[in-house]
């Protein structure tokens, strides 16, 4: 498919390059549609069925209760990034289907990432080296990740599950905040622990993956949080969704709207449920508000606050993230 995009891109020349429907664009749209079609069918068919039935006030469509293929969300994004990068000319098409298959289905990163680009992983596939030092480094990183998952995340999660199993009227405000903070720690150590294990296994086999977390709860703004949290996902959403929507090139209002749409779809990508949609929308609105505030005070992109302003920003950002995790954790809005 990537070779076909590359060939079509090379043959579409002259005035054809400036038309709306060139062969390479049509092929790109078709391949992205096929990938999203599989993801939409398996992950969102029952969600849409329930929505249609609720709007119709009766049973119009029967849910299929489909089993979700393992890792479909992650390898779908990887396939889309590969096709898009070939179309843009960022990478050359991979002529060897085995190499491409290894990139898509490399087991350590299939379930929770990181979402690797072919530009980096393809180079490792073609020129891979396994050394005792790299093996030892990978094994140590894997053990760190396993410790985060088993010793910390699972223990925090067991407390959260036990408390939330009680009726809501038996959970006080203080206990609710306690559980919220515990879940905030649980989900960090769960996701970052899995990323550590994937990175460690990759090193054992001679692959180098990018870091996926960088102390996100030390962030002083929501924008900084998304530069530190699940970095491979946030960069994918930026490069292939936010920029494709227009990014910041079409005025301030459009930029804010693009941020909200990007995070809305990012929330929906996490799961076929309204709680994920709200979680993503909250973050999108917060990103838009932060960008608006930055433009009002005249602070440049990437410029960090210092001193008490940063402490204040970290406290506010951490509690906002805690609040949003409540919706991520619970599909029951009550």
Description of the structure:
- The protein is an all-alpha fold.
- It is built from 12 helices and no strands.
- The protein is globular, with a radius of gyration of 22 Å.
- The termini are far apart.
- About 2% of the residues have low confidence.
Tags for this entry?
single chain, 334 residues, mainly alpha, 12 helices, 0% strand
Order of H and E elements:
HHHHHHHHHHHH
**Beta-strand segment tally:** 0
Radius of gyration using CA atoms only: 22 Å
Main sheet makeup: none
Fraction of residues in β-strands: under 5%
Task: Report mean pLDDT, rounded to a whole number.
Answer: 89
Structural class: mainly alpha
Short account of what is shown:
This protein is an all-alpha fold and 334 residues long. Helix content is 68%, strand content 0%. The model is unreliable at 11-17 (pLDDT under 50).
Topology of this protein?
Layout: H1 2-11, H2 23-56, H3 72-88, H4 97-105, H5 118-126, H6 132-164, H7 173-204, H8 222-228, H9 231-242, H10 252-270, H11 274-297, H12 308-329
Helix pairs in contact: 1-2, 1-3, 2-3, 4-5, 6-7, 7-12, 9-10, 10-11, 11-12
């Amino acid at each position: 498919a990537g070779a076909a995009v590359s060939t079509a891109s090379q043959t579409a020349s002259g005035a054809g390059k400036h038309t709306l429907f060139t062969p390479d664009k049509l092929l790109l749209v078709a391949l992205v549609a096929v990938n999203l079609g599989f993801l939409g069918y398996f992950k969102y068919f029952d969600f849409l069925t329930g929505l249609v039935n609720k709007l119709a006030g009766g049973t119009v469509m029967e849910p299929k209760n489909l089993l979700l293929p393992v890792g479909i969300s992650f390898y779908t994004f990887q396939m889309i990034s590969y096709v898009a990068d070939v179309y843009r000319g960022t990478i050359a098409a991979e002529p060897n289907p085995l190499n491409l298959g290894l990139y898509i289905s490399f087991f350590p990163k299939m379930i929770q990432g990181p979402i690797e680009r072919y530009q980096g992983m393809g180079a490792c596939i073609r020129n891979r080296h396994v050394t005792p030092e790299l093996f030892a480094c990978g094994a140590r990183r894997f053990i760190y990740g396993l410790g985060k998952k088993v010793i910390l995340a699972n223990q925090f999660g067991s407390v959260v599950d036990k408390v939330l199993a009680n009726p809501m009227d038996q959970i006080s405000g203080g206990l609710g905040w306690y559980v919220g903070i515990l879940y905030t720690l649980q989900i960090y150590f769960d996701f970052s622990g899995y990323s550590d294990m994937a990175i460690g296994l990759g090193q054992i086999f001679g692959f180098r993956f990018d870091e996926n977390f960088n102390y996100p709860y030390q962030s002083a703004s929501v924008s900084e949080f998304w530069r530190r949290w699940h970095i491979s996902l946030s960069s994918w959403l930026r490069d292939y969704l936010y920029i494709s929507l227009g990014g910041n090139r079409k005025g301030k209002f459009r930029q804010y709207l693009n941020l909200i749409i990007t995070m809305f779809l990012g929330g929906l990508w996490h799961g076929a449920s309204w709680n994920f949609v709200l979680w993503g929308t909250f973050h999108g609105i917060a990103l838009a508000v932060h960008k608006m505030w930055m433009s009002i005070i005249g602070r440049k992109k990437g410029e960090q606050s210092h001193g008490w302003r940063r402490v204040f920003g970290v406290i506010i950002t951490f509690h906002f993230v805690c609040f949003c995790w409540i919706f991520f954790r619970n599909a029951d809005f009550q």
